[in-house]
Known about the structure:
Layout: E1 4-13, E2 16-26, E3 31-35, H1 42-48, E4 58-67, E5 70-71, H2 77-86, E6 88-91, H3 95-98, H4 105-116, H5 123-132, H6 138-141, H7 151-163, E7 169-173, H8 181-198, E8 201-206, E9 218-223, E10 226-232, H9 233-238, H10 243-250, E11 300-301, E12 307-308
Parallel strand pairs: 3-8, 3-9, 6-7, 7-8
Antiparallel strand pairs: 1-2, 1-4, 4-5, 9-10, 10-12, 11-12
Helix pairs in contact: 4-7
Amino acid sequence: MALLEISNLQIDFGATRAVDGVSLAIEEGECLCLVGESGCGKSVTALSIARLLATPPARYAGGEILLQGRPVLRLSQRDLARLRGGVVSYVFQDPATSLNPVMRVGAQIRESLQLHRPAHATDAEILRLLRLVGIPAPESRVRDYPHQLSGGMQQRVMIAMALASEPKLLVADEPTTALDVTIQAQIIELLRELQGRLGMSILLITHNLGLVGDLAHRVAVMYAGQIVETGAADELLRRPRHPYTQALIRSVPEIGRERKRLQAIPGTVPSLGNWPSGCRFAPRCPVARPECPTLQPQLLPLSGDRLVRCPFSEA
């Protein structure tokens, strides 16, 4: 049984469907990267795993989420409280707005320990967590306030807080967005090391396919509320089959390859509730056919575990 199984998930905001039939699975010890532009529904999908979306305005309109075999959408609030942190923890994209600005970082880590592992809410455990995430001189940093730390150090503190509960699944929602490229690489490398050392599963959400190659076992590409392609990371990155995945890869800069300019994807992600009636990528697709604006493609199996939402991907 997979650690996380999401089946045909549908999430509405009012009369608008933001997540439309998403299915994902994450095995124990696996890293799945969920990739797509802003506005595709990645964060809404991630927040639904622990039922963190406010209802209303959100409404779980259909589908199922199983975490360690437990039906998340039918759990009581008491059971949800045990699941949040105890089984799944989150690292969000902007640590400066996630950390409490008037609490020392050590006190914030202690708060997480007291909630989930009260017997381990000790100075020694706080220092161990800070060392685990690579913060130098933790004996002095433990008394710092968030504004005294760099963006990279703040994100490491957020990861330490998420790991305090010893979760089975770590959801990292755009954890490198607010950081420069050097620190981005350090955070991704840290997640890779932590996964190998702790054996936890990771759901990494990003819009940058350039970050996933060294970390992901599998990749799921999301566009306009739907999964458009999934597969093993090395195969998907080497041979993308959906036009949207191909466009994302073309927009990633490559060291040593000269280009006058990056190949940007024309247009923008359609706004919530204004999804095209046919293939949702058709208005931006460079290889769209006349029937694409009216054809509603399904996820089709290819070789191995590849799934592609394009009937012309073999062409």
